[in-house]
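Researcher: Please translate sequence to structure tokens.
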Amino acid sequence: MAGLLKKIFESGKKDVKYLEKKADQIEALAEETAKLSDDEIRAKTEAFKERYQNGETLDSLLVEAFAVAREGAKRALGMFPFRVQLMGGIVLHEGNIAEMRTGEGKTLTATLPVYLNALSGNGVHVVTVNEYLSQRDAEEMGVLYNFLGLSVGLNLNALSSEEKREAYAADITYSTNNELGFDYLRDNMVVYKEQMVQRPLSYAVIDEVDSILVDEARTPLIISGQAEKSTILYVRANSFVETLTVEKDYTVDIKTKSVYMTEEGMTKGEKYFDVENLFDIESSTLLHHIAQALKANYTMHLDVDYVVQDDEVLIVDQFTGRIMKGRRFSEGLHQALEAKEGVTIQNESQTMATITFQNYFRMYKKLSGMTGTAKTEEEEFRDIYNMRVIEIPTNKPIVRDDRADLIYTSIDAKFNAVVEDIAERYANGQPVLVGTVAIETSEVISHKLKRKGVPHSVLNAKQHEKEAEIIQFAGEKRLCNYCNEYGRSWYGYQTW
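Model: Translation complete:
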């Protein structure tokens, strides 16, 4: 074990030494590059493109291109990438994962390899976990890319096919992982090649790479079409499963979100639906409806997995806490939820196209990512994506005081302690952001905060339309429209 740890430590030191050597070469050009005029800086981009077309590799252009992008950032953004950001950029260019601590400037770091790889003309995708971040980064970093003579596209869900095609045709395209995957599926359903919006997948930089390539790796993206309608069977199946008793008639596997009927439960089902054997081929449709009703009632939870609004069941994204408008669960599960909640049951859907994030992102010629927490999943990144995780040193020594976790005997005790802590910080004039894993939890804390007299704002899938205003003023001490009845201060917390 000691030998293995020594090997890992020495490997990390070797990586840092190599990156520092490259960073030295880039920094050596800083003075020379600073003497160039703005027009001369922009001319460098065209010169790099020409050299690439004439046979030079991006690797051979790296030092000069990074120096130009660094100087460009200083002039266009007023930010000059630190040495450690140069090192992180090199890691990203080489198709690996840069593990950088929070606050070390990952967004600016990404501009260096994005600029370099955009010189090939094959298009670079910068992937974020939500459209707010895509839009923000495209606008802020787009100033730099435009200054350097490159075009920037923003791929949003609301865009038409023509607008998406234009966004993908840009040198650099900002998009969410969801939208990239669905655009790929739609492209594979068109009749003519000219109707496709994406170009061949060349290079992607993924922000919060562990969330997308590990946590959501097996999440299927599904495009569905309408199938036949069988409303009555969903209602009957739901009525039946509501009569069942846990452990006696069915068991639940919480980890896999699976529900299994016992022998007694099956016997009840055969009597309820007046069939001889639920497992006969003639009863396969009925059995499927029962299985989905069981899953809807005993593994899917209101205000956690979905919400009900305006006579509709809407999916809540487990990773962002946002409502996934226009998305529906497949294989009749959505209809089973509609029967459970007593809303209008819409037509069934059938899967037309599907892909997982894991399979989609492996199609890129080169893939890279950045996050603050990837070392624990290094083996998975290496085995599945052939990507290494390289830790980038912090720009300055860490002065943060990391303390041990606090453990409570009950959930209620934990939430009471959280509320006490928030109240104390509020009294000191300190803004607070509380992240919860479910809508229900955020509302429990909100109720406790109201009882405590702490003004705050709740941002979850139920209030997602207020997101822009809540985020805009979060942390400010001001009067606001969406604070509770105390209305003096702003304390936002969001489900993640």
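Researcher: Any highlights?
Model: The chain is about 45% helix and 15% strand.
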